[in-house]
Amino acid sequence: MNVDDALSLLKSRKKRLTRMRKHTLDIIYTGGPVSAPDILKTLKMKKHPVNKSTLYREIKFLLKLGLINEVQLDTYVTHYESAFLTHHHHLVCKNCGNIKELICDELEGPLEKLEKRVRTKGFLINDHNLEFFGLCSSCN
Ligand SMILES: [Zn+2]
Ligand SMILES: [Zn+2]
Ligand SMILES: [Zn+2]
């Protein structure tokens, strides 16, 4: 699902398509994972400044509709990304804060096995989070 799909989904659910809504979705879908301060900065650059509480309301709305996900990284702020990405992990640069997506097929098999084993002990795992920290190509 890309930004246009998300917008038509909103339309079909009779939700308003404000300029801010379009911009916010676009920023998260094309630049994700992004934090609220990142989004505020980009909105300002796009000549569409909004205040913090308006943006937080908007983020809450998009989360509730299941269009975006929260990404918990070991940073001070929550990041957001499209809810329709292939399962992946993140590479986080500890120096500049740059975040890259990482699909690790090598890991998913063993992790699935582990999750099955845990399941036999009565705990149902339905997701996992695994992030890698270090220095990005421009910082090392
Ligand atoms: Zn870096
Ligand atoms: Zn991601
Ligand atoms: Zn995984």
Structure notes:
The protein is α+β, with helices and mostly antiparallel strands and 140 residues long. A 3-stranded antiparallel beta sheet has the order 1-3-2. A 3-stranded mixed beta sheet has the order 5-4-6, with no helix packed on it. The site of one zinc ion has 6 residues, from α5.
What proportion of the residues is helical, as a percent range? Answer: 40-55%
Question: Radius of gyration over alpha carbons?
Answer: 17 Å
Tally of DSSP β-strands:
6
**Element pattern in H and E:** HHEHHEEEEHE
- Uncertain ranges: none
Question: What is the strand content?
Answer: 15-25%
Structural shape: globular
N/C terminus separation: 34 Å
Q: Which structural class do the helices and strands define?
A: alpha+beta
- Can you give the mean pLDDT? 92
Question: Treating each run of at least 4 consecutive H or I residues as one helix, how many helices?
Answer: 5
Distinct compounds present: zinc ion
Strand order of the largest sheet: 1-3-2
